[in-house]
Amino acid sequence: MRKDPNRVSGEPMTLNFGPQHPATHGTLRIVVELDGETVLKATPHLGYLHTGFEKLGEHHDYNQYIVVTDRMNYLSPLSNNFGYVLAVEKLMDIQVPERCEYVRVILAELSRIADHMIWLGMGALDLGAFTVMLYGFEEREKLYSIFEKTTGARLTTSYTRVGGLMRDIYDGFEEDVRTFLSTFPKTLKEVHTLLTRNRIWMDRTKDVGVVSAEDAIDYGLTGPCLRASGVDWDLRKAEPYSYYEEFDFDVPVGTNGDVYDRYLVRMEEMIQSGRIVQQALDNLPDGPVNVDDYKISLPTKEDAYGNIEGLIHHFKIIMDGHGVQPPAGEVYCATESPNGELGFYIVSDGSGKAYRIRIRPPSFMHFQAVPHMIEGGMVSDIVAVLGSLNIIAGELDR
């Protein structure tokens, strides 16, 4: 290390940045080597959850595993549910009803908004903007009320099923969502007023944690973090699924790849998600939300209680651990989750449980780029960079 002759300093200091909930938001840990306030070296550690999300896939049937996906990125569990069942349905060559696809898209985009609002509130709070956190939590609570009435839960929703949904949306769902969409842009406008041209916010975020387009691709960044570096890549456009090709929306792209651009990209993404939800509501089809195959979807209660065939199908799916049984084979399916590409690689041996499940979570890929973003910067920049990446500890777990 070359020493500045004008500095009166000793040896570099090693500091554990985390794990603590403020700033690192959970179990993250970064070992940093400092020269005063300057970061010379950073070594990120995954944390201490050790829940074994992938291994659990070998011990749960395909529908039971949905509750595990809730707990990966716990800020957007509906998106996790969505991505996982799409992979299983691809393995089984299932086409779910059109209404089911539209409801999934609506909830996935509302989940994107909820996820981004929490990211916005907590990231701003980390840098001292307390009021923005209150805005973020208020909007999230409005969406959580909708999620609770739809799924029965606020956080761990477990709403999707292989071949459909747990149940259809409730009476009044469309009215509640439209009410939210009518007021939400005003909140975003107020947040823009508080932050976007705020001198303190700009000083803390502009030219901090810069990642070029080439480096972003090399590090495997996806989602808002990739697009903020100037790469126009969104799976909803590039590899459409669930009728996304039928929706009119824009993909915001940044230029500088810094914390400030990652903020602007997410702010615009929320507006675009609102556009998608509005179009989905306007064209929401009638019909069932589950495939008409009792070897895949549960029979109605009337069938289960009223005739022997329904009772047997219910028993085979639930009671004896038989579950749905995809053919032997393997599949990879990726969706554009709020943080980026969320991919599920599933190997089936033809039984009711996966032989192997491997997950490609965006946070796992983004965390490896942290040293590139913070080395040479200040200690205070670590907080800004981590907040801009929205790294979720549950997704890092192996």
Would you give an account of this structure?
- It contains 18 helices and eight strands.
- The protein has 398 residues and is of the alpha+beta class.
- The chain has one domain: Cytochrome-c3 Hydrogenase, chain B (Orthogonal Bundle), CATH 1.10.645.10.
- A three-stranded antiparallel beta sheet has the order 1-2-3.
- α5 runs antiparallel to α12 (259-282) and α12 (259-282) runs parallel beside α17 (379-389).
- InterPro entries: NADH_Q_OxRdtase_suD, NDH1_su_D/H, NiFe-Hase_large.
Give a short synopsis of this structure.
One of its GO terms (molecular function) is oxidoreductase activity, acting on NAD(P)H. Residues 126-398 form the NADH-quinone oxidoreductase subunit D domain. With 398 residues, this protein is α+β, with helices and mostly antiparallel strands.
